[in-house]
């Protein structure tokens, strides 16, 4: 017989009631809905290929920086080698990504999108690009830079140099 006991995290019990008026609940809620719709555009296309959001993230970064070492991708995604290996294996086996050995260091594994991988990434990104373009077009002239600064501010300070390396902050 299943227990009728409710499992509750002890930290939840010990929290004091929160003053919700001091929380940016509007920003948090809007962020949730924006992200849900942003990734939802690509989810159906990914699902048809038997892929998920992890596959999309790998395709994004490999297209952003062709020749990216697997070690760098692990650092960016903050996932285990095992998780990345499963996703990469599927992308490689299905012809979206190719892996090459580094010239200077033969132990290094460099990732490149194939033509099929670039085309699929473009398809995944098309609706997301339209959504971003429409939202930014509705902003005042400095709006795009304000949005970029907001997102940079949401990133852990220890990762901000990585944003520069990936050239995600060039327009700031």
Proper CATH architecture of the domain at 44-124: Orthogonal Bundle
Order of strands in the sheet with the most strands?
Answer: 1-3-2
The termini sit apart by 60 Å
CATH topology of the domain at 44-124, by name, is: Arc Repressor Mutant, subunit A
Over all CA atoms, what is the radius of gyration? 20 Å
Return the string of H and E elements.
Answer: HHHEHHEEHHH
Overall mean confidence score, pLDDT: 90
CATH superfamily of the domain at 44-124: Winged helix-like DNA-binding domain superfamily/Winged helix DNA-binding domain
Structural class: mainly alpha
Give the overall shape. Answer: globular
Percent range for β-strand residues: 5-15%
| Largest beta-sheet characterization | 3 strands, antiparallel
Give start-end ranges of low-pLDDT stretches: none
What's the CATH class of the domain at 44-124, please? Mainly Alpha
Number of helical segments? Answer: 8
Residues in helices, as a percent range: 55-70%
Number of strand elements: 3
């Amino acid at each position: 017989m299943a227990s009728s006991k409710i499992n509750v995290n002890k930290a939840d019990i010990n929290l004091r009631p929160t003053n919700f008026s001091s929380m940016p609940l509007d920003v948090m809620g809007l962020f949730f809905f924006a992200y849900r719709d942003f990734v939802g555009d690509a989810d159906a296309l990914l699902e048809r290929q038997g892929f998920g959001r992890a596959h999309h993230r790998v395709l994004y970064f490999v297209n952003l920086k062709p020749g990216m070492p697997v070690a760098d991708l692990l650092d960016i995604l903050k996932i285990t080698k095992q998780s990345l290996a499963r996703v990469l294996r599927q992308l490689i086996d299905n012809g979206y990504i190719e892996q090459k050995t580094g010239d200077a260091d033969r132990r290094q594994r460099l990732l490149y999108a194939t033509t099929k991988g670039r085309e699929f990434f473009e398809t995944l990104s098309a609706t997301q690009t339209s959504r971003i373009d429409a939202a930014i077009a509705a902003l005042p002239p400095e709006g795009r830079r304000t949005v970029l600064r907001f997102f940079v501010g949401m990133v852990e300070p220890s990762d901000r140099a990585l944003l520069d390396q990936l050239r995600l902050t060039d327009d700031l």
